[in-house]
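Dear colleagues,

As part of the handover before I leave the project, I'm documenting each prediction I ran so the next person doesn't have to rerun anything. This entry is a single chain, and its sequence is reproduced below.
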Amino acid sequence: MELFMIRRRIPLTAVALAVGALALSGCTVVSNEPDQAAVDYNGGPFQAIQFDSCVQPSERAFKAITDNYYQYPAGQRTFVFDNATNGDGNPIGDNLAYTAPSKDQIQLTVSGQMRFQLNTEDCSVFQEFHEKIGRKYDNGEDWSTLLSVYLSQPLNRAITDATQQFGWADLYSNIDGAQGKWESKLKELLPTYIEQATGNAAYFPADKIGITLQKPAVSPEMQKSIEGVAQAIQDNRSQQERNTQVLSEAQGLEPLKALFNNDQNALVAYLAIKAGKLNGVLPIPAGSPVIVQPN
């Protein structure tokens, strides 16, 4: 599971105290990890706060001691949605699985993962995202809530609309490759719905969005019914195989029946001796073509 809750806003005064030499010179350092990017704003007590620059992953920048910068996750991220829990019963994903009706109105539970990337490479887009969206969520600190509004809700809508185009049995049993078509339809719808939620498709570029869906699940009651039908089909096949075997064995006994002049007792005794279940003398019916050579 991708961890999103990393600190994104770090007052430069705190950093300056940690690097005393730089603090004395009136500077501080913006230092990003490889999976972080930041927007930097300057302005002192008597100045209007203004955007200054973007600081990309693994970059280090020297800024004024009065600056503030706000960090966001950079690079590919994974949003997991399923009902799996850990040993304490807590969810291990970022979101619970979604439910959506099929074309024939059967409720399906949908699990999987979405890959996405915040556009931090285009500085103007990154700045706009922070000012229009990030600032409303504690300058990006409340990343989980931000994702639930701008990614999870569009994903839920796309899953619902895509699932309604297929019958439940087609998706459940992957008839004619329905699961692949379902996943492709979701990928087609999702970028549009994210754009409608965020107001700008450039925030989460469509070519950076990927979806992997698991086999949809049905209700426990329907699952039990499906297993019952499957068992009945298997039992029927097994019975057909037994019937075929008995018929084949019966057809194979026809030459022996003729050999023993249709004497059923003699035939049974012969088969028992052949199987090692009877020791003794096999009676030969009168008129049988079986020839016994004397010792």
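Confidence is low (pLDDT under 50) at residues 1-8, 12-24. The chain has three domains: 9-73, 77-222, 247-290.

All the best with the project,
I.
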